[in-house]
Design a protein that fits this description.
Layout (H helix, E strand, L loop, with lengths): L4 E9 L2 E6 L3 E5 L14 E7 L2 E7 H5 L11 E5 L16 H6 L5 E5 L1 E9 L18 E7 L2 E6 L1 H5 L3
Parallel strand pairs: 2-10, 5-7
Antiparallel strand pairs: 1-2, 1-8, 3-6, 4-5, 6-7, 9-10
Length: 164
């Protein structure tokens, strides 16, 4: 019996290469006409209109502790599937359901510096995150994979979407 293959959509924040499980992603967009939201948490960048759907845009750099991301021609938005669109197996644990229901009917996008590619990884090659990681808040880290282009840090979307 072979090992499980997982696909990750990879993206950059500063010089860091991150990945999110492709099963959790609805789509990737470059449409970033952002409407700010008064009194929102610092990591909520605002709202965007994606073909008639209102999407709450979270500044992933701000959320991870890397600071607010500048908007550029390379910036992208990774739109996550709603909990409704996920099977029970795929549904992230401990997601604040009220956040997803309350904010834009559950459509949440992550602002990143640059969307990269989809990589397929043997799940046995995913190592635990380093204990000594100081740059990024540790609770957001899922694991680390060694790729030819460097280290890929996988993220826990459940933690990114939590209110804590």
């Amino acid at each position: 019996m072979g090992t499980l293959q997982r696909k990750f959509v990879t993206f950059k924040l500063e010089d860091h290469l991150f990945g999110i499980d492709a099963l959790l992603i609805r789509e990737v967009s470059r449409s970033l006409d952002v409407t700010p939201v008064d009194r929102a948490p610092k990591h909520v960048r605002g709202l965007i209109n994606l073909r008639g759907q209102v999407v709450t845009l979270l500044d992933l750099g701000q959320r991870l502790g890397l600071g607010q991301r500048p908007l550029s021609k390379n910036s992208g938005c990774i739109v996550l599937k709603t909990t409704i669109g996920l099977s029970p197996v795929q549904s992230p644990k401990n997601v604040d359901e009220s956040l997803l229901e309350h904010i834009a009917n559950g459509f949440v996008g992550l602002l990143v510096d640059q969307v990269d590619e989809v990589v397929e990884v043997d799940s046995s090659k995913i190592d635990p995150p380093p204990v000594n990681e100081q740059t990024i808040k540790r609770r957001f880290l899922g694991g680390v994979v060694r790729l030819e282009q460097g280290l890929l840090v996988t993220l826990k979307t459940s933690e990114i979407l939590s209110l804590e």
